[in-house]
Amino acid sequence: MYKYTEVEEKALLNAGTLGIKRYILSLDNHVSVVEALTAFCKEKNIYAGKISGLGAVNSATFRFLDPATLKYVDKTFEEQMEITNLTGNISEKDGKPYLHLHITASRRDYTCIGGHLLDARINGACELFVEGYLLTSVGRYQDPETGLNLYKF
Predict the structure, then answer these.
(1) Residues in CB range of 109: below 8 A, 6 or more apart
(2) Which runs of consecutive H residues, i.e. helices, occur in 1-119?
């Protein structure tokens, strides 16, 4: 599902970032981005952190929250696209890693689409940096006013 390497602890100590683990991650072809990242975070016990990366997908489902109705609208794009930016954060909800991801993807005609990423299927490669804050866990709660899963401190 994925391959990874951990950034050397000595390098992190020299940078003054004790308590942070950094990983360079490559997702296997044809896997779900969310499934692979969630499994990785669970394996490494990451419940607070950040994600950035790029790659290529042939299917992506975006999610939009309509603030007037507080209802989600999902739309799936079934086409080859380049991930020009994948960014997000990691927290915890219901005892599991919770990913909040946003993506910008470039189409064949060089136009871009973007927004909240519900999931995507890799078609080519996906290269990521994952940073985990080891001594921290950030929870989530459903905010009734906005309809969003917000940080719970």
Answers:
(1) none
(2) 9-14, 33-44
Length of the chain: 153
Q: For the chain, report the end-to-end CA distance as a whole number of angstroms.
A: 32
| CA–CA gap between residue 32 and residue 117 (Å, rounded) | 12
77's enclosing H/E stretch is: strand 71-77
Helix (H, G, I), strand (E, B) or coil at 14: helix
Least confident span in 41-50, 95-104, 136-145: 136-145
- Which pair of tokens denotes residue 48? 């607070």
For 43, counting Cβ atoms within 10 Å of its Cβ (0-12 exposed, 13-18 middle, 19+ buried), the class is exposed
Q: Tokens for 45, please give them.
A: 């016990």
For the record, the structure tokens of 118 come out as 């519900």
Q: What does the pLDDT look like over 11-68, one tens digit per residue?
A: 555 556 568 999 999 999 999 999 999 999 999 999 999 999 999 999 999 999 999 9
